[in-house]
Amino acid sequence: MQDLYRITVKKKCKLYADNASEMAKLCVKAFCANDDTSAQAFVSQAKSLSIKGSKLLNAIKSKKVRSKFHFVYINTSFKNKY
Fold first, then answer.
1. What are phi and psi of 76, to 5 degrees?
2. HSE-up (13 A, CA, CB side) for residue 42
3. Domain residue limits at 75
4. How do residues 21-80 score in pLDDT, each as one tens digit?
């Protein structure tokens, strides 16, 4: 079970990094845009990626916490039996 949590966290971290990279690119495009309409469109896209990034980060934190508690439970259950 511990490996499943680790693999899931690793995948979500990769998605989070890709999301952050794309968001940074959109911010640069907004900054370099020739007109306000284009800049606002890039900022809007970056904002939606920001929301997605927050959800990914919360999922990563949740999996890490669950993984930690699961590991502690396994360790204490072995100590109590033997």
1. -70, -30
2. 18
3. 2-81
4. 999 999 999 999 999 999 999 999 999 999 999 999 999 888 776 655 554 444 444 444
By CB atoms closer than 10 A (0-12, 13-18, 19+), residue 29 is: middle
The domain total for the chain is: 1
Helix (H, G, I), strand (E, B) or coil at 79: helix
Residue 77: which residues within 8 A CB-CB, separation 6 or more?
none
Give the tokens for residue 8. 């899931």
Q: Residue ranges of the alpha helices (H) in 1-82? A: 2-32, 36-81
Do 30 and 46 meet the contact criterion of CB atoms below 8 Å apart?
yes
Distance CA 22, CA 27 (A): 9
